[in-house]
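Researcher: Dear colleague, please comment on this protein.
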Amino acid sequence: MTVTVHHEGALPALPSGIQDAETTKAALHNLRHFHLGNPEVSNRIQGVTSECLPALLDPFRDARRLRFEYPLFLKRPRPGERPIAARDLAQPLSEYLAETVAAFAPEGDGARMLKDNLPWLERDLRQRLEGDKTQPGMEGPQPLHPLLDEAAERLLEQLQLDPKSSDQLRGDLERLRAAIPEQGQVMGYGFYPAIHQLIHVIRTLSGPRHERFETAIRDGIRGLSRLLEVEHQKSEAVKAPAHLRSSIGRASGLLDPEALSGLMAHSTGSVSMPPARQARIEQALATLTAYDDTKVRVRFVHGDYLADDSWLNQIPGFEAVSATDPCTEAMNLFDQEAARLGKVFAALRIAHLEIEDIYNPAIHDPWFASFGWEAFSKEELLLVPGVIVLESADLAATSDRASLTRLLCSGRPVQIMIRVQPHNNPAALADEDPFQNYRTELGYIGIAHRQAFVAQTSAARHQHLIKGFLEGLDATRTCMHLISTGLRTTGNETAINAWLVASAGLEGRAHPFFRVNPGKGDSSAERMDFDGNPQAERTWPVHPFRYLDASGATIECETAFTFADYALLMPRLHHHFAVVPPACESSDLIPLARFLKRPEGDTAQAIPYIWGVDKYGTLQRLVVSRTLVHACRDRLNFWHTLQEMAGVNNRYVEQAEARTRAEVQAQADAERERLVEAHQTALTEARAEAAGEVMGRLTEVLMGMDFSRLPSSSAAAPAAEAPARPEPETQAETEAEPPPTPRTGEEEELSFDEAWIDAPLCTSCNDCLAINPVMFVYNDNNQAVIADIAAGTYAQLVEAAEICPSRCIHPGKPLNPGEPNLDDLMQRAAAFN
């Protein structure tokens, strides 16, 4: 969560207790029965106090010390600029003030006192803006200049500076004020932050659009008037002496109008305009001339959404309409405005066609005869005064659901704003526990209306909220905005910030963000926007957590923020939690996030808990009821559904990836087997050929030998009987014909001592090149070969063979007999040779 706490609070501490087997056994018995929903143990367990907060939110207990996105500075684009992003319309005041000061004092020491006290100004302005909230709606945008002037005086009074420093700070404050536009406004996080931001967006966009429309009407009136004037000049009335006398004016005494009229009567003139066209032009001109802008830009239609709507009627261009069936009333109001403006749009289109002289009655007459809002262009639809339905989630899910469906299916560009309380089930009866049944997800219902724009967002994230407004208003189709603003839950001593509660709903998967825009395409990948969700790839967001154990040692760990943590913020849901006594230790007590990972059939003995901290900083384990555990599973089910739609942890994608990997692996294995088989065949043939060649040479040697020189069987006779050995004629003769080398034993088998790579099997994985890019290189087929065996070590060869996925590297025998650990390396290499 994007918040900052300006204090060094003590870490929550885990209390110590005397562990006793019997006490632990009794406590576990009671806690297990509480978890399972046995009401008989309610008087034997300790419930949570109203000040107990989720452990991860304890540092933000004091709302006065928080710095967060609000107050917002509402920006207005310069003339001619069109806002294209949320930042163009609103920005946190802290950021805006810091950027403004840096613009006129960029140096490190420039305006140093003002820069150091900007957080004080921001906090003071926030307190003034929040002020008295007894009048909902009246806490909306306020002019920044007067608020800043008052805050500046309070700051100077607070600091009590010497005259020189006071003058310097006052001068910097005046420079800051001068840099802020006169029309600049600022707003806090009040009762209706989403409505005020929507009003700001509409006012910013509608002004230039209506100025262009009024310019187009004036141009249409001017063009049609010229056409009728030209036609009027062709009429006989223009040639009458009386008309000529009046048109000449003061010079009429110098001319004879009767004579001039006689001369004009003989001229043939131009072809007259057909009566039907003239009537059409006159009708369009009359419609454009009679157009009167009502200046009403938006009508808010509501049932019981607003207790008091008078503040809306005080905003120029906005009206509040109360209705028992807001959705049906919204359709009627849109149809009325569309019918009124449809005549003007048709007249403006006819004017353009007539001025360009391209109106074709055969084509255009039937077109304009049935011209309704369905035929409006996008720009024309945006000119129709907006209709915004303010609806509560409870009514939208129950009594008003049928009319809501009709509106969502109608295609009319009506904006529907539904206020959502993420801990509630909008379809639950008044006396039902919100977790008694599976939750009715209005967002999923909206998605089922395939042609409607649906956004689930929160005022706690103003950029996501405004982006949804910009996209929805531009979509010119029915739009449903499901908005969480948080609740102000008050304890005995402190109030939890409403912005923080809304943020916790986002963190705990109670109110995940998404936008579905059918105008972007038919596939979920095109329609779905999943931005803004914290740690969107995880089941629950996980954050660092530090606390003191019973011995006082600091423990650092990571803790998940679950839906149960969010539910702990709601006092009406505290009956779903029970405090674990400090002395109770058991392996059956497990964190809720881990509990939810187990299959439901494997949790019979387990008791889930979350961490909580009371107002004294005592860390507590809080057992969660089985009913709330089911609610957590239900919220996770919806979260996983949205993840799948957004392509995050999509099971279909994972299955497709697994199938593709299996197919690729099967193809690679088949190819490897084919190559290995071919290699073995070639090797066998090579060995047979080599053996045949060796035998042939041996035969030749044997056939060419002089067997008379071989010792006979009578070699053992006395030397006297042996014949004399002839002497060689020369030494050269003897050396020229050396005796054949005798062979003993069987023929030695051929061996491959040098390292080699079976390149056709290489998958180009790059693993061997990462070990030694000089020894291993790629050939022209992008497959590995050994370029320089001396450029590496035998250890690198063995390592490359071991990590090669296709097992195509054969290390052979070491080139360097002095390399260390050769015995071990050769033993490892044997499997690959």
In short: The mean pLDDT is 86.
